[in-house]
Amino acid sequence: MLDIAKTADRKRLSVRGVTHSYGGQNAVSDVSFDVEAGEIVALLGPSGCGKSTVLRAIAGLIHPKAGNIILGDDDLANVSARARGIGMVFQNYALFPHLTVAENIAYPLACLKVPRAERRARVDEMLSLVRLQGYGNRLPRELSGGQQQRVAVARAIAGRPSLLLLDEPFGALDRALRFDLQVELLHLQKTLGITTLIVTHDQEEAQSLAGRLVLMNKGNIEQTDTPMAVYDRPKTLFVNTFIGQANLLQGTVVGFDAVSTLIGLANEKSLRLPRRLSFTVGSRVTITFRPEEVRLSTQPMENALPVDVTVSVPLGPSLVHDLVLEDGTGLRSSEVRGPSTAIPEPGAQLFAEIDTMRCHAFPGEPENSQ
Ligand SMILES: Nc1ncnc2c1ncn2[C@@H]1O[C@H](COP(=O)(O)OP(=O)(O)OP(=O)(O)O)[C@@H](O)[C@H]1O
User: Fold this and answer.
1) Where's the ABC transporter domain (predicted)?
2) Please, are residues 164 and 38 in contact by the beta-carbon 8 Å criterion?
3) Which ligand 1 atom sits closest to the C-alpha of 54?
4) Residue 8 pLDDT level (bands cut at 50, 70, 90)
5) Residue 252 and residue 250: Cα distance in Å, rounded?
6) Ligand 1 pocket, 48 CB below 6 A?
7) How many helices (H) and strands (E) does the chain have?
């Protein structure tokens, strides 16, 4: 077992009601979530939703207007950024260009007044952890982008932080390299067990790294859950459309029986969802379903809507169809492609059978806004 793994201090991070504004504009409002000791959580959301603001507040780079940040047993309100024991990696967190790789990694250790001999041993340990043995005497400019980011990770964990914060750490790297570094980071984090919060707007990165996702939109948290739960059981329309792809149909609740709800759609079409929704008759609703929950058929049947095929595109193992309903609404369906899967011609008239078991319903747009 590595030395650092024995001594790393696992702590739980608790963010409680954090609110912050720049000027008069609220950037984040009442944000609360926990990262359990040793857990990786991803903070995910579109540009400008407030992710970096939350991270900066945790790091102590800004003082939130309200709320508490607790690491282990300590409220960090009056703890300086330096004294928080947090390691950080940013997308453009440049290494010191005039210091060697070893000196860069040793820098935080010198700040922590770690004795020289121990510093040297720790640098060697870090270099081997990020698989850069033999690179200690190079300057940052003599490394590739991916190697530089690995040095930044080594520097962030060298001081044995109890929390690691990563802000779009691989954002500047190409896709293949990103993936390699994600796998490495995951391995490293599992070895060290450091409580880790990663900020990203890349949902694949979030899902491949994190045990739980915190989904932010416009300064608020919309859902905190495992990647699977967020995909399968989105709590809001935003989450449903932000994670994965979703088809949207606007409809009206027409009626119920004990076990189903009838939804009226444009052009006198309808869908019967196999459960009783908690909307009143006449409510406008947005019905959503994933492309893989639509099956194309040549036969009319219940819950199958007539569509024209715009285009069908084979994408590796799948076949993706762009479709259009009679009222002009676009739909997408996807199916696993086998050797005998027929590819429909553009303009083909088919029926899109929707798996109503998997549909979600959210409050819809009012009729006059259409
Ligand atoms: N220093 C600042 N001064 C004024 N407004 C700011 C400042 N920093 C951020 N903001 C605003 O606060 C909001 C949240 O910004 P933040 O950087 O936290 O978002 P983000 O989710 O990290 O975005 P991105 O993914 O683009 O980095 C945005 O509307 C942004 O314009």
Assistant:
1) 13-243
2) no
3) 18
4) low
5) 7
6) yes
7) 9, 20
168: Cα separation from own chain's centroid: 11
Residue whose CA lies nearest to ligand 1 atom number 17: 52
Give tens-digit pLDDT for 128-164: 888 899 999 999 999 988 889 889 989 998 888 999 9
- How many Å lie between the centroid of ligand 1 and the Cα of residue 326? 42
Which residue do the tokens 């998997």 mark? 358
Range of the domain at 63: 3-241
Note the pLDDT of residue 116.
87
Average per-residue pLDDT for the chain: 90
pLDDT of residue 29: 96
E strands present in the chain: 13-22, 25-35, 40-44, 66-71, 74-75, 86-90, 163-167, 195-200, 212-217, 220-225, 247-256, 261-264, 270-273, 284-289, 294-297, 304-315, 318-325, 330-336, 349-354, 360-363
Number of structural domains (the chain) is: 2
Task: Please identify, by atom number, the ligand 1 atom nearest to the C-alpha of residue 53.
Answer: 18
Do 202 and 55 share a structural domain?
A: yes
CA 364, CA 283: separation in Å to the nearest integer? 8
140: phi then psi, degrees, rounded to nearest 5? -50, -40
Which tokens sit at 269?
């079409």
- What predicted TM-score, i.e. pTM, was given to this entire model? 0.88
Distance CA 297, CA 299 (A): 6
Interval between CA 163 and ligand 1 midpoint (Å): 23
- Final residue of a domain: which of 215, 241, 267? 241
Beta strand segments in 92-232, E: 163-167, 195-200, 212-217, 220-225
Is the CB of residue 64 below 6 angstroms from any atom belonging to ligand 1? no
Token digits of residue 120:
């040297």
DSSP helix, strand, coil percent of the chain (3-state; round to 5) = 30, 35, 35
Residue where the block lists tokens 């759609």? 265
Q: Measure CA of the first residue to CA of the last residue in the chain; give whole Å.
A: 62
Q: Are 96 and 103 in contact (CB under 8 A)?
A: yes
Tell me: do 26 and 171 sit in the same domain.
yes
